[in-house]
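Now for a concrete sample entry.
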Amino acid sequence: MRLLQATLIAVFSCTIVSDANAQQRVVDCSQDHALCDLENIKTIDEEWNNTVLRHCRISNKRTGIVIRNVQNFTLERCVIENISKGSGIYMNPMHPSQNVTLMGNTLRNIAKNGIAAPENSVSHLTIDSNILVDVATKGRRGLHHGIYIQTPASRIVDNQITRVHDGNGIAIRSSGEVSGNVIRDTGKSGVGYFNDHPAPRPSILAISGNTISGYGQRASGRAGIEVLTNSPRHLVIDRILIENNLVAGANPVNCNDHKDCTVR
């Protein structure tokens, strides 16, 4: 156990970091109304480098916020609701970002994914203490999720995810940390891993301390925490640690045939 903890610390300490030397400006939309005009915040780009953006609101739009080509950016305590076509927060893979934190935001009634980070869209991503309610409302094939992460070494911690109408509460496709989340009422699993995106070597996915209930509402055979490892085998993560989760319901954890999946 000590060796695994040391390995996790080594992995996360070298990959999940924040730039302590960057001087971040704070833009509070409850005060800075001009900077927070809807046209300015729909796309977050290099103009928002080294910025904390607080208390913004996007309502009744086709798409939410797109984040692209930004460094050292925090989106904090914003509300994104009634998005009729796209995702609530989308990281653009054509213009990658670095050191992005999404903290304390509320996302409600989102057509596709609540938060989506495709492969190569961002490095050093933290998703912390957000509330997601009624997401993936337009999904029908299990392809849209509460939080959908394809980038390595992301931290997804202490979020509340309720009523994911299509897929998983959290769908993670690479290495990272998924801990302390409360997930209720999902179409598929509460937390689902699938090996269709690369991870660094050595690669570890830690899933711990999550509370999951009401999963499998559209796919009754799925576990609360589901590990799927199909082709291509070279993308399968090295090690998965699943511990101290509270999963209410039949079939709480399924590692399938993963070569190194530890459940405690």
Q: What stands out?
A: DSSP finds two helices and 27 strands in the chain. Residues 2-15 form the longest helix (14 residues).
